[in-house]
Amino acid sequence: MERFWLKNYPKGVPADIDPNQYKSLVQLFDEAFKKHSGQGAYSFMGAEMTFGQLDQHSASIGAWLQSKGLGKGARVAIMMPNVMQYPVAMAGVIRAGCTVVNVNPLYTPRELEHQLKDSGAEAIFVLENFAGTLQQVIDKVPTKTIVVCAMGDMLPFPKSLIVNFVVRSVKKMVPAFTLPNALRWSDVLADGSKMNLKQVDCSHNDVAFLQYTGGTTGVSKGATLTHRNVIANMLQAEAWYQPALAKLKPGEQMITVTALPLYHIFALTCCALLSMRTGGKNLLIPNPRDIPAFVKELSKHKFGVFPAVNTLFNALANNEDFKKLDFKSLILTLGGGMAVQQAVAEKWLKITGSAICEAYGLSETSPGATCNPTDTNKYTGTIGLPMPSTDIAI
What domains, with CATH codes, occur in the chain? Predict the structure, then answer.
């Protein structure tokens, strides 16, 4: 078919990408760990994890999973908000040859039971704040290997102890739970560090993620995303970003505000996986609903890329402290998940100087399908153009 929209592509954006340059996400991860070893990959509560440390920790998780007989094709659930353990667990599961089953930590017991049964998840990594939900369904699901982590587990001592104490005893954010066979994250990480990760021959057609989506009817359904699906969309996003990335100074790192949940496909691809490819850093925001704390964290960083949804843009744009932040380093604001309202977009542009670049996608497309040019300087009210190597017909 004729791709007539290509004539409207911004300068520097290719018509096509080559997903065959990587055999699997494992190869992409290995390349990133070698290429960006000393650079920061994630920032969380003032602590930083480099790509080298992410390599080491995820290899430990992967080796531990393999030691439990969880190899190629096994489904492993991750039930966490944006904490440092998420990228470690996600990369570890993929490197072990397993399939990631992302789970919304705010699920009700009924929703969680459905997803664990439907996916056939044999293991789960869960933040202790949500372990009580798991307790209510654990006897009804096939999930027998349980790893529980705490908010501060990946923070340096003594901050790790302080954060865990505050979360548990001061803010009372961890309801009592009983999971007799559960293992602690720190113990699993320590045990895995003594093991060797076995290389797994993953290919394009192997399933990397079972990405559950509410859709429009009935219960949540798992979209099957292969290694090739996710690699392709990550490369499409990188290609589409080029006009914005050209604004970075030589050697300057792309810092992405990762407030959208990594268990959602938008942030998974456009924040976590794209940063693997580019060597960018993710600024993890565990609870974006706490706007004052969110703005306080933003004030400590020079951020360049800001993906969000309409409700979050609106909440921030109406916060007086947010308006006082320095936005000179902001080169790209991405809007997705739902339509961005014109009034919100115009207010955001007035405050930050960065126009919201709206995109459209769905879990089945990993997720990007169309996007406005990233050098846009105004609200368009449209979903933009098909991304590279994308055909759209009516």
Answer: 4-21+227-386 (3.40.50.980), 51-202 (3.40.50.980)
